[in-house]
Each structure stands twice: as C-alpha cells, then as structure tokens.
Amino acid sequence: MDRVVHLNELQVVGSHNSYHLLATQEERDLRRAAIGDEENGLEYAHDPLAVQFSRQEVRQIELDVFDDPEGGLYADPFLRRVTGGGPLTPTMSNAGMKVLHVQDVDYHSNCQTLKNCLRSVKRWSDDHRGHAPIAILLELKDTPLNIGNIDFVDPPPFDEAALNRLDKEIRSVFPANRMITPDVVRGARATLEEAVLEDGWPTLGQSRGKVIFLMDNGDPYRSRYLAGHPSLRGRVLFTNSEPGQPDAAFLKRNDAIGDFADIQALVEQGYVVRTRSDADTVEARTDDPTVRRAALRSGAQWVSTDYPPNSRSVVFSTPYHVNLPGPDVARCNPVNAPPGCVSAWLDAA
User: Fold this and answer.
1) Which helix (H) or strand (E) covers residue 58, if one does?
2) DSSP state, 22?
3) Is 313:20 a contact under the CB 8 Å cutoff?
4) Cβ atoms 318, 286 nearer than 8 A
5) Residues 71, 136: Cα–Cα separation, whole Å
6) CA atoms of 147 and 78, how far apart (whole Å)
7) What is the mean pLDDT of each run of 10 residues along the chain (349 residues)?
8) Which residue in 133, 182, 291, 319 could disulfide with 207, CB within 3.0 to 4.6 Å?
C-alpha cells in the first residue's frame, strides 16, 4: 500500500472546530437570550486531540486561529467577566496565536494556543509513526464583533506579517521532514496545480507519520498568503483555491449534496477536497444521515463532522455519528483508489 496508494487516494473522517468545548450553562443561557436558536449551533464539544486520534478515528482536525502578537488580547473574555469568571490561564497572556471560536463570547478550547494544539498533535504522531497523514485545517479569524455598545476585542488583521508569524509558529513545532508542504508536492514543476494534475501527490509511504496544513479561508487571505510566494513557494499551508489557479491543489466544498458532482470530478482530476457531513448540530439533533451519506460517497478526502465515532453530544442524545463504512480509520477512496487498495493497511497507528 505504501507504494501503490497516494495521499489523495484515501478518505478519512475529520472533526470540525476540533478544539471546541461547551460553554458554562450560565454563559449558554445568556447567549441564548441574545441570539435565540442560533445558540443551538454552538452546543457541541470535542475531546482532546490525542483522544480524537486514538479513539475516534479522526485524521483531520480544524483549528480557528487568532493573532495575538503581544499577548493578553483574549485572556479575559467579556462573557466570562459578566458571568463571574476570572481571567483564563496565564498561557493566554503570552504572545502567540490563540485557538478559539469567537472572541469574548465562545472561547472555551481544549488547547488554547496554536503551539499547544500542534504540540499535542506532534506528541501523538511521535508515538504512532505509522498513522496515515493528518490534515490540519486552519481558519484565520480577524472579524470584529459589533453588538450594541459592548467593547469587544478587535482581533488584529491577518496581514502579511501575521501570516509570516503563522508559518513560523508551525515550523517551531513541526520540522520540515514531518510536513507535506507545497514545495514537496510541486517538485520541479512550474506550478503547484501542474504538479498535482500531472505528477500526483506523495505516496502513502512518503506521507505516513506526517501532517499537511490547509487554509480554510479564501480571499483576501489567500492572496495575501501568496504575495511574494508564487505557487506557494516557501509556504507551509495549501491555500483554498480554484481550478485553473497556479496554487490550486486543495479545494473546500462544504455542501456535500449541492457540490456532489463537482467534488467527484475534482477528486478524479487529482485535487484534494474537504467537505462536511453535518453543520450547526442540525443533522445530529434529528439523526438525519442524508448529508453524511453524500459526503462519504463524494470521494472528498476529508469528511468533517462534530460527531466522530465514540463521541456523543453533551446536550442532546441521538445516535448520530460519522464513521467510514467498515472498521478502518482510513479507507480506499470510493472515487479514485487504485486497484489492489486494501483499507485495512492504510493506517498503522
């Protein structure tokens, strides 16, 4: 399998907002009074990343990242103050990227800083070097909150300097030989897209025990990240691009039903795709498998959910969860797997 199967010929389950924890009941009640049923979409929680890898068959995670170049911006969230909580751990006062959902109002995280999240991934990877590659999707967050006259934190923008700091933080945790980067995939080709479509992705043997970083955002973040780095030369993340662009390799298609035919076509061409099987707790509350079925059949390499195997909602109880057909952590992609592919041999963690 290590020689026959390539990175893009697998399919695995991912977790959405993999760091997210449930807010306190008092905070949830206060938010619901302000936003009504939109609060439903925040009522999910994930176990620590290592637990997701070891017990919940997860091989793709998502982290929301806020820049905090001086430290302390997110150390004393508004909602925590008004409900009588004190400042967060001293780690939140240190300079560096932070991981949370929405500043001041949805901040509970099982790994509060980007470096701590990545160190958790690396520790697990160090102990399980035979694992199929782990994809780490990063959503860059810098949107202000404007609600009445409340003085919420304004996140610093993800400008070129912040994007450079982001790459630096990642490289401080993962050495080059443990990452699959655009430079690795591009090789001698002029563009990343040309390499993906003509040469393909690294083999499974070249990818085991490694991570690959993906950018959730589109423009303007994509264009800023590409500035001075044509076709992502020297960069860490694969951008969320579109066919026909020099940086096109990874594409996000979250609507597994509406984008079904498009996803299949993209996978057949050689791109890698992330889609979702559920969103905002909607499917889970009614145990609706419709989107899940489409997502798994689409061939998207990463199918993201809030409900991986062996996890459960802490707010409502249905049997809804998302796992691959069969007992394996990774499976031969239903759209493009080569003849002779055997799912049981793809992940040796």
Assistant:
1) strand 58-66
2) P
3) no
4) yes
5) 24
6) 12
7) 97 98 95 94 96 98 98 96 89 96 97 98 98 98 91 96 98 98 97 98 98 98 98 98 98 98 98 98 96 98 97 87 96 97 96
8) 133
